[in-house]
User: Fold these one by one.
Assistant:
Number 1:
Amino acid sequence: MKNVPDQLLQRNEAYAQHHEPLAPLPTLNTIVISCVDARIDPAHILGLAPGEAVVLRNAGGRVTDAVLQDIALLIAMASRAMQRPAQPEIVLIHHTDCGVERLRDAAVVQGLSNAAGIEAAHLHAIAIHDHAASLREDFERLETCALVPAGSRVTALRHDQRSGRAEIVFQEDLT
């Protein structure tokens, strides 16, 4: 049995046989924010081809300060490359049976805080109690960030881990 790096390099070799270089800007002008859960790969669940969207992943697919910084940098880089203001589509994806749903329990938060060295306040902030509410919170974080341009369309999706289907929870433009 091969070790994991050897398996991955072998798969990469198969990929490289058909690889074509892509343009740096995503062809769908889209930024997807999703969870790091290995079961939830945005490219697969949304049928994205390479080069169509930028995908940012973190615990819970939450809009954190780090995500806002990444989005601001991506928009600045795209604006510079296009020589005009970039106004991307933003897709937020939360999913059922997400690990951060377990952060509703104070004992779980305290245990993970101690084990991982992460402040309990951060874990409470990313906890998902209700998908529609957490998606709305993430939308509001985008809307109040001066670095994300008004007029950008935000689509909030809830992915059902069991059925594989995603549904639109809401779709709004940033003001």
Note: The first helix runs from residue 4 to 16.
Number 2:
Amino acid sequence: MTNRLFALCLSAVLALAAPGCADARAASEGEASKDEAPKQAVATVPDLSLPDLKTGEPVSLTQNGGRVVLLDFWATWCDPCQKSLPVYETWQNELGGEGFAVVAVSVDKADAPVAEHAARLAPSIQVLLDPEGVAPKAMKLPGLPVAYLVGRDGVVRSRHIGFHAADAAALKAEIEALLAEPAP
């Protein structure tokens, strides 16, 4: 009995130490399955508009202007997010002229230091604010960070759960392959 209890506790601890930060809202509402494949194209981007951090103007998640978009969901309290945003910043600067854009959706509460984190980690990336968690609920995010790679045609090509520096080269290769496709 003691070994069984230990095994259950260990399983719970390992689940919390998974590649991303737990998104309490999605997890508590049971909206996401833990068995989903991390790179499977499983959703479309919802037709939502969120305010831009810098301008306050609403920006549609579905209008990509013919660009390849990495739609990243993050939060200031998420450790893997702190590692992913600088990598995405590098790609934004390197590939932006080729039709690539990173759009980072902060799911932080309204009083969180989002502007400070964005300015420090990814100053050239467009940051949208979603303190109510509307987009994560619509997309049934399993945790944070989660990045959707959207082709020039607006179709979600892959989903990446969590962030590991070792996987960054493969994600960049996916982005470059999409950039090489002809514009619709």
Note: The helical segments are 2-16, 24-28, 79-95, 114-121, 134-139, 168-180.
Number 3:
Amino acid sequence: MRQIFLDTETTGLSPENGDRIVEIGCVEMVARRLSGRNKHFYLNPERKSHEEAVRIHGLTDEFLADKPVFAAVADELMDFLSGAEIIIHNAPFDVGFLNEELRRLGRPPLGQHVAQITDSLHMARELYPGKANSLDALCRRLEVDNTSRTFHGALLDAGLLAEVYIRMTRGQNALVIEEEEVKTEVVEDELPAIDLTQFTLPVLRASESECLAHEAVLAGLEKASGGLVQWKKLMP
């Protein structure tokens, strides 16, 4: 399935009270690999931004004045999102704004355009209960470089979220692992028996550097899982 990591920046906190979207960033991933296909829009919200919002994203009214309105990019955006799993950090916030923009145009809400909507903040809270789970906090915890994040930018944040998501779901191809029935056809060939005692099999032991590299990988997995590793329970 196509997965699209999406983020928005807005004029304020309340779409019900008239706040609008000023920026949308989308990053596409296919089979857990970034495809290089992204979408990015700056939008004229047709209203002034709250000062606190401008301090967060840095997009002034003057900068946004000549940008297209949401209606002008709606077709392109919905075509890009159509049929994909949409992953958003604190999804109710962004989805609320997108649904309000779509409502103004007489269109169905986002959930009817896409395969599903996944809230990565909910995922993080299940993985790291009781800990800070903002995007910045997850970047620090999972060692994702976010040093270029001086302002909140929709495309930058969507890219960071993609990296965070991969590390949160390391070792999985999907959040739900379904058992698939595997049919194995047994073919009996009439082959002569071989006496294996006539062979001396060499034992290739790992070098010191290989052992250290292996330990480093295990330590990274343990850190990324928040200490939920299982192999230590099996060690004597």
Note: The two ends are 41 Å apart (CA to CA).
